[in-house]
Amino acid sequence: MTTAAGAPGELAVVARGLVKRYPGAEQPALAGLELEIRAGETFGLLGPNGAGKTTAIAILATLLRPTSGGVRLFGLDPGRRCQEVRRLIGLVPQEIALYPRLTLAENLAYFGRLHGLAGAALKTRVDECLAMVGLESQGKRRVETCSGGMKRRANLAAGLLHRPRLLFLDEPTVGIDAQSRHVIFENLERLKTEGMTVLYTTHYMEEARQLCDRIAIVDAGRVVALGTPADLLAAQPECRDLEQLFLRLTGRHLRD
Amino acid sequence: MGAFFATLRKELLLLRRDRGGLALLFLMPLVLVLVVSLVQDNVLKLTGEGSIEVLLVDRDGGPAARRLVDGLKESGAVRLVETAGDAEGEAEARRRVAVGDYPFALVIPAGLGAELERRAAALARRAFAADEAPEDDANPLELAVYFDPAVQGAFRATLVNALRRASLGLEVAEKGRQLGEVLPRQVAEQMGQALGPYRNLPGAPAPPVVTFSWQDRELLAVRTEIAAGKIVAQPDSVQQNVPAWTLFGMFFIVVPLSGSLLRERQEGTLQRLLSLPVSGLPLLGGKLAAYVLVGCAQALVMLLVGRLLLPRFGTPILQFGGDLPALILLVLACALAATGYGLLIGTLVRSYEQAAMLGPVSIVLAAALGGIMVPVYAMPPAMRSLSALSPLAWGLEGFIELFVRRGDLARIAPQLASLLVFAAGCLGLAWFVFARRRSGGR
To answer: Measuring CA to CA, which residue among B326, B302, B320 is closest to residue B245?
Structure first.
């Protein structure tokens, strides 16, 4: 178990010249990605489909090794101190990464046990996390019978069980209603006040503007713009909002 | 160990709630055992023709023995494999049958031809009351057939019938030949004595009537005996089918297991698991242990069906043999092999369609090759060679060894080793494919 808050000015994520080539792919998924995320920051990673956002998160979350380049999380090299790094991070994947035939509570209890929780502490933490996402009365419900919004919220809760210092959120609000999105937003705001570092990918520009301290727009595997939403808009006065800025930087052609 | 037990508990919970998977794992083999055991006996009788391998020990080596062998070959029911025609050859043939290398051995005794000729000639003479000597050869000569108790009775009957036909042909030929020699001599002699100088006159009496009813008298009998010299359990459809379909059901664990692995990959849970501070070993071990436990539970249920339920339908009771620890180890090794294979399939496939196709089809093929549907000894030689590659054949051979031949741990050691090596190979290959994909990111 870790605490979320970090030392002032500490860097949570440092990625230098990240390159990832998948076998058989014509273009690299990442082509020299550079990132620095400060501890306690909520950082948005925006980009069109295929820009490399999910690959970047997979590398930062120790699921993939880069073809070249280096990563440090809280100063630790994930290649050498993988288990230490994994204790510091939480992952909320794009998919609903829960077992459909288990109840919400059983899912959280299982992942909690894998984080080393047990007994009363486990039960308390499962209840807390369910309550955090508004599912306190739904713990005995099987995931397969839950609505899309409930599943998304439970997916977030599973990533928070061990109080990670750095949370990776890969499009956590896809396909859910306004109410569930609101609950997720509230939680992310609260986590931010608690000092948790969040790396957030989304296609919703308004979400990013509201939630993120800084934003990186990536395209073709590299960062094409980086800064606070206000600074980015100020640098492009002809763009009314982030969406216009995004289209200007990444183009209007489809990325199917 | 926390991660191991957490995963074990999670997997058992998931399996308990998978009604379709449970039906596949427990109901399907149960129905198969019940139905197939009750109806298969006649099917086996029909399928054995021409495929029974028999070790031949010809200790006589004469023309009569050769005619007998030719008659057997002509019957088309057996395939003869000749070995040395001496006492050592006979002992070796009996040993090879006893250990299950061959289902049968046929021994033609030394001096068979000469004795057959002598007895046929005596009978022919006796038909005319020319030989007044007392019957000192009332017991027929014996052709010995040694058999493996694991061989179905239908196949034994096929061989014995073919042998009886061949020996009858030989008898008839020998009797006919002897009669042909004795008949003219006896007729002339009797007529000469009765008529004296008038035997050539018109109206002289006709030659005496000769009866051939003695031709039906059996001169050769067939003796069958279990090669190992002791009866443990009669080879029947229960002893064959219960372990066979139990194994089939155990290997069908590939379906829920590969589905579970695929779901974890496609639904993101694997991604979440891999991001946790837990090594892959307890996660994989917990999953394997859950499925191995299910495999053992399957075996227990099916063996109890053979022991308690099938006899209620009038079948013989399933005999477990005398070595319970060996049986437990064999069940465990089979469950491990099945689970390892399921893990490999689940790692190789990329879609539910592939899993639904590759898993069951490969199991049915392995079962067919492994003697689940038709015993291995009844297969053509080429298929028999292929059957040695099927893990179901190893498992079934182990069960038959324990249940029918009263084998022990030492006797099933080769099967145990094969199953465990297979399980380890599947796990190693699955791990290699998984690690390779992870490093490639696909």
So the answer is: B302
Q: Is residue A255 one of the residues assigned to a domain?
A: no
Of the residues B265, B269, B278, B439, the best mutation for testing chain A's interface (the one with the most A CB atoms within 10 Å of its CB) is B269
Minimal-distance CA residue of chain B relative to A83: B277
Q: Domain total for chain A?
A: 1
- Residue B119 to residue B217: CA distance in whole angstroms: 12
A137 touches chain B (CB under 8 A): no
- Confirm if B57 and B89 have CB atoms less than 8 A apart: yes
Nearest to B300 by CA among B324, B283, B265: B324
Q: Which of A22, A99, A111 comes nearest B14 by C-beta?
A: A99
pLDDT, position B418: 96
Which domains are delineated in chain B? 2-42+234-440 (no CATH), 49-226 (3.40.1710)
Which stretches of chain B score pLDDT less than 70? 40-51, 129-138, 199-200, 204-218, 228-235, 439-442
Q: What is the DSSP string of B372-386?
A: SSS-GGGS-HHHHHH
Max Cα-Cα span within chain B: 122
Q: In what order do the strands lie in the sheet with A68-73?
A: A30-38, A11-20, A68-73
The whole domain housing A172 covers 11-250
Kindly state whether residue A3 falls inside one of the protein's structural domains.
no
Whether chain A has a CB inside 8 Å of the CB on B312: the answer is no
Rounded average pLDDT over A106-133: 94
In this structure, the strands spanning B141-147 and B220-226 are parallel
DSSP, res B55: E
Closest approach of A3 to chain B, Cα-based (Å): 16
Report helix, strand or coil for B221.
strand
Write the secondary structure of chain A as one string of H (helix), E (strand) and C (coil). Answer: CCCCCCCCCCEEEEEEEEEECCCCCCCCCEEEEEEEEECCCEEEEECCCCCCHHHHHHHHCCCCCCCEEEEEECCECCCCCHHHHHHHEEEECCCCCCCCCCEHHHHHHHHHHHCCCCHHHHHHHHHHHHHHCCCCCCCCCEHHHCCHHHHHHHHHHHHHCCCCCEEEEECCCCCCCHHHHHHHHHHHHHHHHCCCEEEEECCCHHHHHHHCCEEEEEECCEEEEEECHHHHHHHCCCCCCHHHHHHHHHCCCCCC
Q: Chain A neighbours among B 212-241 (CB < 8 Å)?
A: none
- CATH (domain of A43): 3.40.50.300
pLDDT tens figures, B291-303: 999 999 999 999 9
Is there a domain that residue A126 lies in? Answer: yes
A175 touches chain B (CB under 8 A): no
Interface probe for A, chosen from B276, B434, B436, B442 (most Cβ of A below 10 Å), is: B276
pLDDT for B340-383, tens place per residue?
A: 999 999 999 888 888 888 888 999 999 988 888 887 877 888 88
